[in-house]
Amino acid sequence: MLRFYSASNGVVNSEKAMLSCLESALAGQGAGIYDKELLIVIHTTVGHDFPALLAAARERCPQATAVGCTCAGIIGEEGANENMRALGIMVAEPERSGEFGIAFCDNIRGYNSYQKAREMAEALKAGTPGVNMVHILASGIDIAADRALEGVADVFGPAMPVFGGTSSDNMRAISTYQFVNCRILERGAIMIGYADPSLSVEMGVHHGSIPVGRPFTVTRSKANQVFELDGQPAWRLLMEKLSLPENSHPGPCIPVAGLAELLPEEYHEVYDNRYILRVIVKVDEEDSSFYMPVDCPEGAQLWLTQRDENLIFSGLERMMGRLARRIEGRKAAAVFHTDCAARGRAMFNKIVKDEIIEKMQSPLMKEGPLPWLGMYGFGEFTTLNGKNLFHNYTTSIYVLARKE
Amino acid sequence: MGATKGPEKKPTYEELEALCRELQAKVTKGIVLQQELISIKDELDQELNRFRLIQEFGEVGMFRESIRDFAITATEYFVMAFEQPHCLLAEYQLEEDCLKTLSFFGFVGTEIPGRFSISGGQFRQREGFLISQSETLQRELSFLSLEDALIAPLFAPDGAFLGIIAAGQQSEDQRFYNPIDPKDRHAFTVMATKVGYLLHNFRANEQLRQEIKERKKVEKMLEAKAADLLRSNAELEQFAYVVSHDLKAPLRNVMGYAHLLKNKHQEGLSDKGREYLEVIWKEANRFNTIIDDLLAYARLSSSSGEGFPIVDLNLTVERVKNRNSFIISQRQAKISIQPLPCLPACPAQMEQLFQNLVLNAIKFTPEQRRPEISIEVDEEKEYYRFAVRDNGIGIAEEHRQEIFGLFQRLHPSGKYEGNGLGLSICKKVVEHHKGRIWVRSEGKGKGAVFYFTLPRGVE
User: Fold this and answer.
1) Half-sphere exposure of A226 (CA within 13 A, CB side)
2) Structural domains of chain B in order of their starting residue, each with its CATH number
3) pLDDT tens for residues B353-407?
4) Distance (Å) of CA A268 to CA A69, A161, A241, A271, B153
5) pTM above 0.95, yes or no
6) Model ipTM value
7) Interface test with B, best of A16, A84, A354 (most B CBs within 10 A)
8) Interchain contact B28–A (C-beta under 8 A)
């Protein structure tokens, strides 16, 4: 049986930040816990000195497996922190070995996402029998997420719940990083398999944006690369519509250049929206094309979107209500949480942001504090109606509930 | 006739298309505008957070243990407040006319010298500035490899130059860090002013801190010594008590047999034998007295000093006089006593104290002189000061301390009887009552006055 502990802080000295997080998360568990074979999931913003963070974790917990990724901000039980040096951790303590396992790869790209994900899933399955949920932390810029999900499904079956997110930087979409013990990857992906039959994961996902104006039609594309919209170079047209220069880097455009795609009808109710959103984090300047995180076939229609504050809050309440009904009778053991980087300070001021987080935390923490680790990433893996999907611009919450 | 309303003209497809385009343009502009507003709000949030951090730094920095801790805290707070990856704090060294690095943050792989020079006179004003505004400084601080940085001089309240603080980015950092907003120099100046004042205070208080530190060290040492002394005293007293008890038993046997010899077998002894027996008897008695005194002394240490009953010292002295009436009348000693107070004390110890002092006064008055002893008292705010005055042989100045030591005898044992414990017991009794004892004498042959104080206690 896995037990979870979390902590976060804004300490700027990386070594101190990690030690302080570990002390705070594991306070009261006895000195012996530091020598156990723990799992430490790390989320950090890009200003931290990563080697120092990882070395501190290794020194304090020499037997632990440390995995993680960068993000635009961390969300802990203590709230959100989007400073350049923010750190959040979740520590999982197994009762016996084999209750979790990890697999990772480097150099995951759009074209090899299926293969890499499949290989990781196979390694995970072979190394950790009994995996009943998969947590993915992957590069946020290069991955073709739907292909990666297919790779996982082909090994574990489509019913295996997959959750997690893709890493981000501070919304610049330049480089994101993943960590495995003391290794720092720039285009990596990590899969954590939890093999604890007493746990199951319940997920909630919501965005609260609405499409505006007339849609663009994808007139030329290949897999997840969109070359033309309405017969014009895709990125140029998009920037023109937003009155932004064509040479804009996608990073700063993320808050305004999100695109909506119509969802199949069976998801409308559970998603609380008819549209799923897509983020653009990579642009090919040469042909003014851009990359979507999932395949985008020709003929698909894409809308510009606008946030609807009422929908954001009311939808969040509905999402938490649905989640509470699904958890009913069980106890939450830990919460992982991925929010889109654009839903941080780029989109909301502090008050709104804090309110959103509070609306998620407060119903789950009625009986006391709950280990909580969240990040503002570039995308979210969340199961919808039993199908694992990749989302953008959402708040996605994964409650690890303990079966009675 | 009123104007008739003509049939409504339906917009053409082109007109509708144009309208749609116009609306679309307005919507997309609205999205961008909304984003700009959010950015402004975010900037305000950051500014608020920055001033909160500056405020917090003032409170935290003030209570750092050492200048090093303070400097580390300062650089960390600058990193937090200005979201820069690197920061350096250097202090001006007047004697060497250079800057000494106190602390730096985030310069991984950059060699920072312990001391470096910058040309004087650059900092005529307190305002912070961008490094790009000073070519000279950019050159002089080139070892930091900062492409973009804010720098501010540090000044003491009296305007003395104290050092510099710099925070910024190296070229590699610029992937993730926005260029420094020149507006940030105002907040940077505010924080640098705070650092300057705190640094000044730190330096000013450093001597004081050092003194306090040393005093604490000495106090600790003294405490340890006192504890050692107490322990060895206690051991010594325990030893004396045990030894005295153990000596008593064989001595009682010696005295018993000597008594039997004296009473029942004296006739069988020669004159020499009787003389020897007398010596044995006298010495055994003297030994007995020493043991009794030692026991009394040891008992003093093992008894608690708490919860004394109220003792009428007039009665105490009266009892002392009665008990020693033989020697007093033998020496025709004149004892005058002022009215004495009642105070919280151990009755037996008070008797011992006055007896020892009175007998001491008689003993050290030459045979040919009539002892004149007066017992006086002065009332002070918190204690009584007693004086036992005599007209004895007096005490030379150099011996005034040592007479209170254990077994201290200033005279050959044949001249004045005694074992050197009497005054030690007096000292112990007085100290046991939280008082003080000392002696004054005009000199040899001019008598002595034994003073002691005893607390008044609760009236």
Assistant:
1) 34
2) 59-209 (3.30.450.40), 307-455 (3.30.565.10)
3) 999 999 999 988 988 889 999 999 999 888 999 999 999 988 877 777 778 876 6
4) 31, 20, 28, 5, 61
5) no
6) 0.83
7) A84
8) yes
